[in-house]
Amino acid sequence: MFIGHFAPAIAAASHKDAPSLPILFIGAQLVDWAFFGFAMIGIEHLRIVPGFTAMNPMDLYHMPWTHSLVGALGWAIGFALVLRMAGLGGRAQAIAAGVVISHWVLDLLVHAPDLTFAGSPPKWGLGLWNHPAIEMPLEVLLVLGALWWLQRKTGISPMRVGVLALILLALQAINWFGEEPVAVTTGFLLMAWLGYALATIAAWWAVRPLSAQDQLLTQ
User: Fold this and answer.
1) CB-based burial of residue 97 (10 Å sphere; 0-12 exposed, 13-18 middle, 19+ buried)?
2) pTM for this model (two decimals)
3) Nearest 5 degrees, angle CA 144-CA 150-CA 153?
4) Does residue 171 contact residue 5 with C-beta atoms inside 8 Å?
């Protein structure tokens, strides 16, 4: 799952006490930001195994610090503490922490069994990556449904919501239909960061205050 992880962030952003959408986008993928960073320096590990699942060749065989449930809870608490230091209130912290935890829950649906409670077996995963006919429409519907909800609840410019949707769908299409990696390289790991960064920048653009010119264009 890639853009599906942003669905809880988008839905949560409709709450009046929520942090801004780009902050929630960071939270939604925080454990993956950390995982790919840890993979670069050898703390966590993955390998490319063609055909490992029907949709994804990554064997994510060692992720104790980011993709265990205890690890995800730790990242959620840490994220909330950062927001507290930045001056955000308790409700905003709780919403952001919930978005971080949602990553693990959604991964449980799609991953092959590679998620743990605290870093050691048993490993869990329901394996929807082996069922593209279910996983692909589910991921798209989660995001589009969350965007519809956000626009309905907040009145964000429909044009901007539409552009954000197109950007997210384009990133997902690259993830699904782009050339599969043949090895774990620094470039491959950095590409994951680039995808998360582009999505977050798009979220920031979608919710930034409208300029006078933008207001004319949306009328």
Assistant:
1) buried
2) 0.94
3) 140
4) no
> In 3D, which of 207, 204, 202 has the Cα closest to residue 155?
207
Q: Domain containing 199: what range?
A: 3-218
Residues 13 and 147 sit within 8 Å (Cβ to Cβ): no
Torsion of CA 189, 194, 200, 204, to 10 degrees: 160
Dihedral pair phi/psi, residue 41, rounded to 5°: -110, 10
pLDDT tens digits for 59-98? 999 999 999 999 999 999 999 999 999 999 999 999 999 9
pLDDT, tens digit, for every residue of 38-55? 999 999 999 999 999 999
Helix (H) or strand (E) holding 58: strand 58-62
Domain count within the chain: 1
45, β-bridge pairs: 62
Maximum Cα–Cα distance for the chain, whole Å?
57
